[in-house]
Design brief:
GO biological process, one term: fatty acid biosynthetic process
Largest sheet: none
GO cellular component, one term: membrane
Helix content: 55-70%
Number of domains: 1
Distance between the termini: 2 Å
Number of strands: 0
Structural class: mainly alpha
Order of helices and strands: HHHHHHHHHHHHHHHHHHHH
Radius of gyration: 21 Å
GO molecular function, one term: oxidoreductase activity, acting on paired donors, with oxidation of a pair of donors resulting in the reduction of molecular oxygen to two molecules of water
Protein name: Fatty acid desaturase 6 isoform X2
Shape: globular
Keywords: Fatty acid biosynthesis, Fatty acid metabolism, Lipid biosynthesis, Lipid metabolism, Membrane, Transmembrane, Transmembrane helix
Length: 386
């Protein structure tokens, strides 16, 4: 990891965060005030790069209709729910992918509603009922760790993705298929030490989600036996786990050893998505982190547009991941809308706007698997070395 140039360095007022994007406008105002107090005079009036870009993006958001801000993504999720009961196996798996990948991600960021109360409700609904995981653990890992400390070693680095005991072919194409079985078990592990009320809620809602899909398959879709319904559930939940781990590891950097169960869970569960999209990119020390705009532009990468992946995982996880990390409070559709503004601005300011193809990243990771996942030194040895 290179030493961070002086002009990249982060002042105290920026804090390196990226946490809950719902606080976007408040954070910008606070940053403006703190910069002016700190610098004073003419220097205080000079707009930082991140604040200037934020102003441009917020202008577009304010000029956008509710349909653009939230309606399009909510409609996609609603259509996915409607496709669940009568659909065939493939369509059912795609609908389930939209709900559990796109839905849980947007819900964790509060992007489905302007109300904080409804935002919390949707987070619990999508993460626990639909995703079979703990909403508290998901939000903690994704919002408060990964987005707040993207590519910061020991905090938001990608540590959970290393499984050196697995051969590359097993890691990339076989292990993810076991995720639907392991996911609820790992959710239970995250509940240790939590309050009885939280444990009871999570267990009940995860059970409700699993039973609801089983009930629909038996009573609506027409499955004749419990075994066939359970096999269908497993197939639907596992079908797109392989591309999901690809999408994640293609855009992430460094890792260290983790238990097998946690790895398998992280392929699928939302809260581990945050640990993903940055292998092969810049990493930073927690004591020498850059300003937010440098951190995100050097540590995040976009994949090209793909109709299937865009709809199933959402633009913020595929072709607008840079925009998502800069402005995590935006919905998928708004990330796509501001993309031209963000890419143009970064190019004009001579900042990187990193993009690479799906097959290119797969080739890179497959052939560099030993370096990235097996022979990589301990994470503590990477601090200070790029």
């Amino acid at each position: 990891m290179q030493n961070v140039p002086e002009e990249w360095r982060e002042g105290q007022e920026e804090g390196g965060g990226g946490g809950d994007g719902r606080m976007g406008e408040m954070l910008v105002k606070r940053k403006v005030d703190s910069e002016r107090k700190k610098n004073g005079g003419e220097e205080a009036e000079k707009e930082s790069l991140m604040m200037e870009l934020t102003r441009l993006v917020q202008k577009m958001v304010k000029e956008s209709s509710w349909w653009e801000r939230r309606g399009i993504d909510c409609s996609i999720l609603a259509a996915a729910f409607l496709c669940l009961p009568p659909a065939g196996m493939l369509l059912m798996a795609m609908a389930h992918g939209v709900i559990t990948f796109k839905g849980t991600h947007l819900a964790s960021h509060g992007s489905l509603s302007e109300s904080q109360t409804w935002g919390k409700f949707w987070a619990v609904f999508f993460i626990e009922i639909c995703g079979s995981f703990s909403a508290q653990a998901g939000v903690q890992g994704h919002i408060k760790m990964h987005h707040a400390h993207t590519n910061v070693i020991g905090l938001g680095d990608s540590s959970v993705w290393k499984a050196p005991f697995l051969p590359r072919t097993v890691y990339l194409f076989i292990a993810p298929l076991a995720v639907p079985i392991i996911t609820p078990l790992v959710a239970l592990a995250h509940l240790r030490g939590q309050s009885l009320a939280l444990v009871a809620r999570t267990v009940l809602l995860v059970t409700l989600g699993l039973y609801s899909q089983y009930w629909l398959l038996i009573h609506v879709s027409g499955f004749l036996s419990p075994l066939s319904a359970l096999l269908c559930m497993l197939a639907c939940r596992a079908m797109f786990s392989v591309p999901y781990i690809h999408v994640n590891i293609f855009q992430v950097r460094n890792t260290y050893t983790m238990p097998a169960v946690t790895y398998l869970c992280s392929v699928y569960i939302l809260n581990q998505e945050q640990q993903s999209k940055h292998i092969g990119l810049h990493m930073f020390s927690s004591t020498n982190r850059p300003k937010r705009i440098y951190q995100m532009t050097h540590g995040v990468l976009n994949l090209p547009r793909n109709p299937l992946l865009d709809w199933m995982f959402g633009h913020s996880l595929i072709n607008c991941h840079v925009e998502h990390h800069l402005f995590p409070f935006l919905s998928d559709n708004m990330c796509l809308k501001v993309k031209p503004v963000v890419s143009k601005y970064l190019t004009e300011k001579q900042l990187p706007y990193q993009e690479d193809g799906y097959l290119s990243r797969l080739h890179f990771f497959f052939h560099k698997y030993q370096d990235l996942m097996v022979f990589a030194p301990p994470i503590t040895e990477l601090v200070g070395v790029q």
